[in-house]
Write a structure and sequence with these properties.
Strands 1-2-3-4 form a four-stranded antiparallel β-sheet. The protein starts with a helix and ends with a helix. The protein is α+β, with helices and mostly antiparallel strands. The chain has one domain.
């Protein structure tokens, strides 16, 4: 049980931070101060954090990353994303169980799990995900995102670093075995 402590605590912290920032963003950015029942009804105020590259702007994402699958029929969209999220959670927990002793991989999986559950809560509660970070340069805008998306992205980045380090260690071990005397 102790080996799952990082997964449990890290995920709860990620979920809590995600949900807390979404509540604050809805209160501060929604014209009504509440998240509407439909993402298309969101009316947002704009807070310029840094002119030319960073705003806070409330948005509702009915799809996956970058709005993928947002046009699925209403009766299919939420169940589809809930199913995908449940499968993702099962895969992440299975990978975590097999990652004993690989701390970077465990941290990565913890962040991905927390982010996935944070967005899943929105999908179940609202039928869409609340996004509020608007990052841009000039007329180019990155799709609006949230803390859960940051957790998932950082987690995936850490998994990539972990895989590269593992490949490097394996190459080093193979090289050492090759030149070692018999």
């Amino acid at each position: 049980m102790q080996r799952y402590l990082l997964l449990l605590i890290g995920s709860v912290v990620s979920i809590g931070l995600d949900q807390w920032t979404k509540i604050l963003s809805v209160q501060a950015l929604s014209v009504t101060g509440q998240a509407p029942a439909d993402a298309s009804l969101i009316r947002s105020k704009l807070i310029v954090v840094s002119e030319g590259w960073f705003n806070l702007r409330l948005a509702g994402n009915k799809g996956a990353a970058w709005g993928l699958f947002r046009s699925l029929p209403e009766g299919w969209r939420v169940p589809f994303f809930v199913l995908i999220s449940v499968v993702a959670v099962a895969v992440i927990v299975t990978l975590y169980r097999k990652s004993h002793g690989h701390r970077l991989q465990q941290v990565a999986l913890t962040l991905i799990l927390g982010g996935a559950i944070g967005n899943l809560i929105d999908r179940i509660r609202l039928g869409y995900v609340i996004d509020f970070i608007d990052w841009y340069k000039g007329d180019w805008h990155w799709p609006t995102f949230n803390v859960a998306d940051i957790c998932i992205s950082v987690g995936v980045g850490l998994l990539i670093v972990d895989m590269l380090l593992a490949a490097r260690r394996k190459t080093g071990a193979d090289e050492a075995a090759r030149i070692a005397p018999d």
